[in-house]
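Technical note accompanying the year-one report. For the benefit of new consortium partners, we illustrate the data format agreed upon in the data management plan: each record pairs a sequence with a structure-token string. No post-processing was applied to the example shown here.
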Amino acid sequence: MPQVPQTFFDALAVRAWCGLALDSLGRAREEIDAINVYPVADGDTGTNLYLTLESAATAVEAVFAGHEAGGGAEPGPAMADAVRAMAHGALIGARGNSGTILAQLLRGMAQVLASDDAPAHADGPGLGRALRHAADSARQAVAHPVEGTVLTVASAAADAAATVAGAADRDCGEVARAAYEGARAALAETPDRLDVLRRAGVVDAGGRGLVTVLAALVETLTGETPRTTAGRAAVPGPHARVEPGEAAHGTPAPCEDGDTGATGAQAGSPAFEVIYLLEAEDAAVARLRKRLDALGDSLVVVGGDGLWNVHVHVDDAGAAVEAGVEAGRPYRIRITHFGAGDAHAPGAGRTRGERVQRAVVAVVPGEGLAGLYAEAGATAVLARPGEPPASGELVQAVRRAHAREVVLLPNDADLRHTAAAAAEQVRGEGVRVALIPTRSAVQGMAALAVHEPERRFDEDVVAMTSAAGATRYAEVTVAERQSWTMAGICQAGDVLGLVDGDVAVIGQDLTATAEAVLDRMLAAGGELVTLVLGDGAPESVADRLEARVREGYLAVDTVVYHGGRQGAVLLIGVE
């Protein structure tokens, strides 16, 4: 890391800044998490900022590695390449409101520093312009900005930087120091702008994280660690309890982690947080903003050039995802149910940072199922075909659930080891985790149907495990290539019926194959058939299968759900 003053901001400075900021956020993460007081005391602002910056730093390191592998003659890659990578990495790795805003701040800087007419190295005035554009673009990304949040802190940093940058012969280090001091002063004033912060005796969590990031910028460019850290900028005194209903009387404040300028949720507000990456054109995103703004609150949409990060709080999680599908291609979808004990619920009275007793975290293969699981109270992690979640993503889902006890449903045999690794990691953080080895989403649905949080943990896990184990599962899909199967050789385009993970039927007609699979499953008995239709399944398939059950199997009920883009054309469960 550079430890001497730098007159210019270049690729090496970008790399050093990301590294120092990541280290600083790692040290401050728990302290920042601890000051989430409104409206959801989920304690993850510091964690979200850390993960977002970790993604940015990883992308920058990849640019340097590519430059070295290519035998570049310069000490490092071009600054434009480094800042673009930083912005892109933050965008695709953004977590929560806090991370989404940070991603847009970094993108705003990159738009100035990597523009066509930008110099190879930014000077003090150039850095000042980048900070100004960052603050302005972040504010524009928030549907309903509120003062006293990270947006206020970012604007104050840009104002202070502009004052210094306008003077003659001011270098990048001086501009960065001014931005940091301006942000720190604004952070200390956030309780004066938001009553809920004043009552709780804390500053805005996202703003505090931004001050930490700017302190790292000062250290990068001057070699000096700022004398006052972001952690010491908090309002003195003990953290006050936020009484039930108290937040509803204060100034509208940021949602999710108390760290953005988005209008905050109050009593009776939306129950789901929906986040996804979206590939879409600008015009489609403009329409999406209007639709999501009508559906809920805390709307933040950041990005550009065809790739966006969307964050919103809604009552209808499925509608929010469907809006994304209409706008383009959403993926890496995360849906979190705030829960009856959360501050989103009317009359909720949890103290700041208090965990719920028990939660369910489940991996699901389609948007429709993600919404269904979320409505049942689970934290859903969407897994697209070819894009299985990593253990780190499951760890973050467990952390978002913010519970003392967690039941983890991988819903895929191939994810069992990944889920086990995630469970082991969060156990080390003091969370009691039970992994139920569900191999299909329909098994997870059966487990979730008997879930009772009021029971003893062990009893609940046994009941859920028993329900999942008593559910036979099948899927109907289309072969992509010729291959050997348990039922013989299939050709590309053949319809395959898999029962308990093995190919049992090879056919040419989707409906006939589905009927054959259902007959094979019901031959061993059953009381309930669950059908989950994928995007490629015609409605007639469900009608035919329901009629077949009515006509041939007495006392067997059928339920039908729409799973969205779930990979398989049809999922079948028999309990």
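Partners are asked to follow this layout when depositing records. The chain has a mean pLDDT of 82.
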